[in-house]
Write a structure and sequence with these properties.
disordered N terminus, Beta-Lactamase
Length: 152
């Protein structure tokens, strides 16, 4: 009976540690906000060209686990994407999530009203290759916005 109790305690502790380790692999909303603020500061300090080049580096300083910076302009064009740099230059106005929502159109409407916004939608997680719910924090800086999303 003692062996079973000891094994049960060990199992519960192991599951708790595994859950903690898995949770640490995913970024939090607070970390997403912090990464956007870091990117905004970098953009302001280094200028548009240098910042966009840095934001297009998949192994650069603006990627943290499943968190990554992306940048768009207020006309709907992607300017930089840390995980998929080939997205830079693409018009994103007609991109829809699986529920039919025009993500970029909605985003631009939000950023016309406020310089910061949270947007929740469905999106392909490049890490898991699955469509997941994503909440993205964005800050508008002049004619661009910088965002980082948290997969849930």
């Amino acid at each position: 009976m003692k062996k079973i109790a000891v094994l049960l305690v060990v199992f519960v502790l192991a599951m708790g540690l595994l859950h903690t380790a898995l949770a640490a692999e995913k970024g939090t909303k607070a970390e997403a906000v912090a990464l956007v603020k870091k990117a905004v500061a970098f953009y302001k300090a280094n200028g548009r060209d240098k910042a966009l080049a840095e934001f297009n580096k998949p192994k650069g300083q603006f990627v943290d686990r499943d968190l990554y910076v992306f940048v768009g302009d207020m006309q709907g064009k992607c300017l930089a994407h840390c995980i998929m740099p080939a997205m830079a230059g693409k018009d994103m106005m007609e991109v829809q999530d699986p529920e039919g929502r025009f993500i970029t159109k909605e985003r631009l409407q939000m950023l016309q009203k406020n310089n910061t916004a949270w947007q929740t939608y469905k999106y392909l997680n490049p890490t898991t290759k699955k469509v997941e719910t994503k909440s993205t924090y964005m800050e508008r800086v002049g004619d661009i916005y910088i965002g980082v999303g948290v997969y849930q």
